[in-house]
Structures are given as C-alpha cells and as structure tokens.
TrEMBL record:
Annotated membrane topology: Peripheral membrane protein
GO-annotated molecular function: ATP binding
Keywords: ATP-binding, Nucleotide-binding, Transport
Portion of the full sequence shown: 1 to 238 of 366
Keyword ATP-binding carried by entry: yes
UniProt name for this protein: Sn-glycerol-3-phosphate ABC transporter ATP-binding protein UgpC
C-alpha cells in the first residue's frame, strides 16, 4: 500500500502542452478513478506515474519519496492496459511468471507467486492454456495476474474493460473491486464509463484538457458538480 502525491505535474510533447500543472494526493489503499474526454491527458498522466513517460516538470512522490528519476521497476507500480497484450505462445502460467523470470527470481518463488495470483483471480484451472483458448474476461484476469505477481504498491489501470462486452464489463467491475478489497492496494483507474466511475471509485478526478476540474467522492460530484462540464460527465444537470 502507498500514498501517491502529484505536485504541479506538467507534460509537453514538443511545444504542445498536454498536462498543465496537475496536483492531487491519493491516500493509502484508495481507489481513484480518472475521467475526462478523449485526449485530455489521462493516459499520459498514468504513464508518467508509472515511469513510462518523462515529466516535463513537477514531482511524483510515493510514500513521501520523489520517484521522478526512478525506472518503472524501481517504482514498484504495475500498470494494466486496455489491450492487455498477453504473450500468445506462452501458457497462462508462463504469462504470469514471465516478468519475475526476467527479474531472475528463483523458480520455486515464481511458482508460488504464480499459484497465489492464479488462486486470487480464479485462474488455477486455466494455468496450462494458451491465451487463444481463453475468453475475454479470462484474458483480462491474466493481465491483472501479471500485475499482481510483482506485489506492486500501486496499480494503474488504463481503461481495462473497454474491450469487453457490456455483461462482462459489469462482472469484471465487481471482480476488480473484490481484488482491491483483498489486496488493499492503492489503485488509479482510468475510464470514460460514468457508471464504472460512480460505482467503483472512492474518489473521482474529473480532467479537462490537461487540468483537474474537480476531485471528490462520487456522491459529492453527483450532488455538487462544480460546473456544467462536471455535471455533464457525472452529476445531475444543474
Ligand atoms: P487520453 O488518455 O485522455 O485520451 P492522452 O494522454 O492519450 O489522452 O493524450 C493527451 C494528448 O497528448 C492528446 O492530444 C494526444 O494526441 C497527445 N499525445 C499523447 N501521447 C503523445 C506522444 N507520444 N506524442 C505526441 N503527442 C502525444
Ligand atoms: Mg487514454
């Protein structure tokens, strides 16, 4: 578990500013959801937190320590993407264990970690299958399993359910919430799905063109949207 503090974070691609001085603090174990229109900088923010993208200025701290110059691995953060890109030639077990193998973790420890995360995600009967033999929801669970095996302090999810059909999306929401309760980890989760945001978040961050428009609990945003933009996303019309 970990706190995450983001202070006046900015990002430009060339001369083109994309994130304009964003500040926000996430508490230990909090489930934070980032929402906002396409192109407002959600993925760029997550990638900066993960260390996959340099920051132009500002700081990212985890448990009070500035991590700007740390590699993704050193940050102990795991990211789950929309197109979860499993290795097609590997079994589920190999997919789950691969990053630990790269880190030269001893074989017995890898096996224990793989079994534990498979158990958490209900993947134990599927460990010998290839990704092509899995359903969409099962693949998404493997993608989450690959994140869990590393025992990250912070999970980042970038629209993880947007490729799934509506029924499965509802089911996976509940699974991700259950996972959060079980692990107690801090989660930062991007979605453009209003229901996902309202039902899953401890707090919601509404972004607009690289700025924070409002941060609050689902009820706060629903009852007291700061403006029509926030209302249009989540709240009742003013
Ligand atoms: P979101 O995830 O909210 O849809 P992104 O963070 O992906 O938004 O993108 C924010 C803006 O930054 C967009 O205008 C996008 O075109 C631009 N952008 C993202 N990545 C790059 C990049 N590597 N190079 C140039 N522009 C980028
Ligand atoms: Mg995005």
């Amino acid at each position: 578990m970990a706190t995450v503090e983001i202070a006046d974070l900015r990002k430009s691609f060339g001369a083109f500013p994309v994130v304009h001085g964003v500040s926000m603090d996430f508490k230990d174990g909090e489930f934070i959801i980032l929402v906002g229109p396409s192109g407002c900088g959600k993925s760029t923010l997550l990638r900066m937190i993960a260390g996959l993208e340099d920051v132009t200025s500002g700081t990212i701290s985890i448990d009070g320590r500035v991590v700007n110059t740390l590699s993704p691995k050193e940050r102990n953060i795991a990211m789950v993407f929309q197109n979860y890109a499993l290795y097609p030639q590997m079994t589920v077990a190999q997919n789950l264990g691969f990053s630990l193998e790269l880190s030269k973790v001893p074989k017995a420890e890898i096996a224990a970690k793989v079994n534990e995360s498979a158990e958490i995600l209900g993947l134990t009967p599927l460990l010998d299958r290839k990704p092509s033999q899995l359903s969409g929801g099962q693949r998404q669970r493997v993608a989450m399993g690959r994140a869990i095996v590393r025992d990250p302090q912070v999970f980042l999810f970038d629209e993880p359910l947007s490729n799934l059909d509506a029924n499965l999306r509802v089911k996976m929401r509940a699974e991700i919430k259950a996972l959060h309760q079980r692990l107690g980890s801090t989660i930062v989760y991007v979605t453009h799905d209003q229901i996902e945001a309202m039902t899953m978040a401890d707090r919601i961050v509404v972004l607009r063109s690289g700025n924070v428009e409002q941060i609050g609990t689902p009820m706060e945003l629903f009852d007291y949207p700061k403006n029509m933009f926030v209302a249009g996303f989540l709240g009742s019309p003013a």
